[in-house]
Every structure is written in structure tokens, then in C-alpha cells.
Design brief:
The protein is of the alpha/beta class and 307 residues long. The chain has a single domain, classed as P-loop containing nucleotide triphosphate hydrolases (Rossmann fold, 3-Layer(aba) Sandwich), CATH 3.40.50.300. The protein is built from twelve helices and seven strands. Helix 8 links the parallel strand 5 and strand 6. Helix 1 packs across helix 12. The protein binds adenosine-5'-diphosphate and magnesium ion.
Length: 307
């Protein structure tokens, strides 16, 4: 069975994309699920990479001028050469997660948007440009990754610029991490609208060979016993239903706002970064780990069955 690609997206920053995607990726690679997992860090801020590589390793081997050879930027080369996956936490983590791999990011990837633009400009000059080419890099390369991994998890940057859209249109599924608060729930409506526009354009221009489905909206930083967060949860559900009624192409009958699984707000989710460990390995009995396992199981059940 080909592997599944899941992009974790939200154009808002700080909503927990990295926290959810890194934990879910690592958890899928743990003995409970035992999957071959590639985590792609597509954000030049490099949070996922800095979390699961040692700072020294990242600085010495990833954040170099040769970033096209060493990072997820390789996915945006006109022709894909070898991808240099890394196996994070050589000593600490590898024994627990033998088939967990990272395609890291570096700060240099801040140039990626310009590089995509320039690559397309060259094509236009030569008269080779076709509509949608700027969104077609991952569409071209992800099928190769689906053969090698059971899951490809993409931690996207907080935007919907070209690199993110590349990953979105080439994914099987999308997961939207979202804080149940005012700004984030308003943002959800805009995000769904924009995703619909992109997909409709791809279909009408004939370059979209894939149809990503919204798997779910995962509540993050959820506070217990706060009525406000329940009201915002209702808003999110209503927003999603409205997009379903309007025929938003990413929203399917099974897309949902998860009501029984979420990431609670807890300091353990932030300190895990400093501990260089996914929280479910370092603190298996903590609520944070239960959150990770329950969200991962939900994603696993939905994607293995083929929703
Ligand atoms: N459930 C949570 N509880 C507490 N802090 C969290 C939680 N999720 C994320 N954080 C913290 O919030 C900040 C932003 O999270 P991050 O995952 O980097 O968001 P994004 O990738 O969307 O920008 C980080 O400092 C992270 O450690
Ligand atoms: Mg992030």
C-alpha cells in the first residue's frame, strides 16, 4: 500500500503545528504503530529540526550554504537528486524509533520562495511555463516518498505561500492545528476559503492531479474547565459545516473538528523541546503523552482505513 502524506497547515503561527506534527510523526514510528515515517520540516524557522536534532548537528550539517543538498529545499530542485534523510537523536531516540527519519529545514530556506519564483521565471523566458508549475514540485516528488515510507508528515510554515501550497496540493490529507480562541477560529474560516480557491484553480487549470482531503481540525493548547474554549469549539464546528454545505473541495463528509482528542495546554509540551525528546517517550504517564497517543490513534485509524 502506498504511504500517506499528511500536511499540517495553518497560516497562523504559534498554533501548535510543529508540536502536533513532530509528536504525531514520532508516535507513528513508535512500537505501538510501528510505521516507517518521514517528517519533513518545510518551515525555514526550523523548529521541528532544532527540536529533534542536536543544535550542534543542525548547525554543522544542516544550516550550511549547501542547503539544497541537506534540507527539504531539495524537493524544490528542478530535478530531485538524493534526499538526505537524517535519523534524529542518534543515541537517545533511535533505539525507540528505528524507522523515524527527518528531512530537515535550515534558516537558509528563507530564500526558497525567491528560488521558486526565479526557477519559474527562467521557464517563462524559455517558453516552457505551464500554469500551476510553481505548485508542481512536490506533486512530482511525493509519489517516490510514498513508496519508501508509510507516513510522510509535513510540518508547514505559518503561511500559504508557494512552498506550503506545493505540499498541500500533493498531500493525501490535511490536518489543521487550531487553538480554540477568537483569533484562531476566525482564521479557520479564511484558511478553508483560501484552500478551496487554490484547489478550484488547480482543477480549472488542469494541473491538480491529486485531491487532498481535510482529515481534521485538532484543538491545541486546550484549557480544561474554560467555557470560552467550548464556545469557540462550537464556532469551529459551525465553520467547518458551513464550508461543507458550500461544497469546499477539501472538506469531505468525514472531515471533522476533533471533539474527543486534543492537545491540552501544558508546560510539558513546551519543555519537551528542551529535553530533546518527544513527550510520549520522556513522560509516558503525563496527560501530554495521552493527548499525543489519542490524536495519533485517531489519525492512524482514519488514514489506514482510507477515509
Ligand atoms: N499544547 C500546548 N501546551 C503548551 N504549550 C504549547 C502547546 N503546543 C505548543 N506549545 C508551545 O507554543 C509555541 C508554539 O507552538 P508551535 O508548535 O511551535 O506552533 P507553530 O508550529 O504553529 O508555530 C511553542 O513554544 C510550543 O512549545
Ligand atoms: Mg512551526
Amino acid at each position: 500500500m502506498p504511504g500517506k502524506v499528511i500536511s499540517f497547515v495553518n497560516f497562523k503561527g504559534g498554533v501548535g503545528k510543529t508540536t502536533v506534527s513532530v509528536n504525531v510523526a514520532a508516535c507513528l514510528a513508535s512500537p505501538g504503530f510501528n510505521k516507517r515515517v518521514l517528517l519533513i520540516d518545510l518551515d525555514p524557522q526550523s523548529s521541528a529540526s532544532l527540536w529533534i536534532l542536536t543544535n550542534r548537528e543542525w548547525e554543522k550539517t544542516v544550516n550550511t550554504n549547501a542547503y539544497y543538498q541537506k534540507t527539504a529545499a531539495a524537493l524544490f530542485l528542478p530535478r530531485l537528486k538524493t534526499l538526505f534523510y537524517r535519523t534524529p537523536y542518534k543515541d537517545k531516540i533511535k533505539p525507540h524509533l528505528p524507522d523515524f527519519h527527518l528531512l530537515p529545514a535550515s534558516f537558509k530556506m528563507i530564500r526558497l520562495e525567491d528560488d521558486i519564483f526565479n526557477d519559474q521565471a527562467k521557464k517563462r523566458l524559455k517558453g516552457h511555463y505551464k500554469p500551476g508549475d510553481e505548485y508542481g514540485y512536490c506533486l512530482k516528488y511525493f509519489p517516490e516518498l510514498r513508496k519508501r515510507f508509510d507516513y510522510v508528515i509535513v510540518d508547514c510554515a505559518p503561511n500559504l505561500y508557494k512552498a506550503t501550497v506545493n505540499s498541500v496540493v500533493a498531500s493525501d490529507y490535511l490536518v489543521i492545528p487550531c487553538i480554540p480562541d477568537d483569533l484562531s477560529t476566525t482564521g479557520l474560516n479564511m484558511l478553508l476559503k483560501r484552500l478551496a480557491e487554490i484547489l478550484r484553480r488547480g482543477e480549472s487549470q488542469g494541473w491538480l492531479s491529486n485531491r487532498p482531503q481535510l482529515l481534521g481540525v485538532v484543538q491545541t493548547k486546550k484549557r480544561g474547565g474554560v467555557p470560552e474554549s467550548n464556545y469557540r469549539l462550537q464556532d469551529m464546528i459551525e465553520t467547518l459545516n458551513q464550508h461543507r454545505r458550500e461544497g469546499n473541495p477539501v472538506v469531505t463528509d468525514s472531515s471533522q473538528v476533533l471533539t474527543d482528542h486534543w492537545f491540552s495546554e501544558t508546560i510539558k509540551h513546551s519543555t519537551a523541546v528542551r529535553e530533546d525528546m518527544p513527550v510520549f517517550l520522556s513522560h509516558p504517564n503525563h496527560q501530554a503523552s495521552q493527548d499525543v497517543i489519542s490524536v495519533t490513534r485517531w489519525i492512524f485509524e482514519r488514514t489506514e482505513g482510507g477515509v
